[in-house]
Design brief:
By secondary structure, the chain is of the alpha+beta class. The protein has 2 domains: about 30 residues, no CATH class; about 80 residues, 2-Layer Sandwich (GMP Synthetase, Chain A, domain 3). It has 3 helices and 3 strands. The longest helix has 16 residues. The relative contact order is 0.16.
């Protein structure tokens, strides 16, 4: 964490005073290129579909997120029948766990900004 703060400080100083980039610091994904939003959405849709077999699914990227790492999920699935909202959310997070960086996954999703989850009878 300290090396990230140092990198940020040195990068800020180098851009403010036109100093050369600090090439001696280890590379970090903090400044790496952003994931493709369509790929992020399609990967999440695929994982949710595999686990929940939804009758309706819509995963969208946040409009104000240029990195494509924030998503909103709307899902209707029979597997939500009789479950409270927490249990439903846990099922969705289980489906996209690798995309959120769990178990050494890619971590292409930084946050789920919202979920609208329901069963077909609702």
């Amino acid at each position: 964490m300290l090396h990230l703060l140092l990198l940020l400080l040195l990068t800020t100083i180098s851009t403010s005073f036109y100093l050369p980039s600090p090439s001696f610091l280890p590379s970090t994904s903090l400044f790496s290129s952003s994931p493709d939003l369509s790929t992020t959405v399609s990967k999440c849709e695929s994982k949710i579909t595999s686990l929940l077999s939804p009758t309706s699914l819509k995963v969208t990227g946040a409009d104000d997120d240029p990195n494509g790492s924030h998503i909103f999920i709307e899902c209707v699935s029979e597997k939500f029948e009789g479950l409270n909202s927490l249990k439903r959310q846990q099922l969705v997070y289980k489906a996209i766990w690798e995309e959120m960086g769990g178990d050494g996954g890619e971590g292409i999703v930084h946050a789920v900004d919202g979920m609208k989850l329901s069963s077909p009878s609702e």
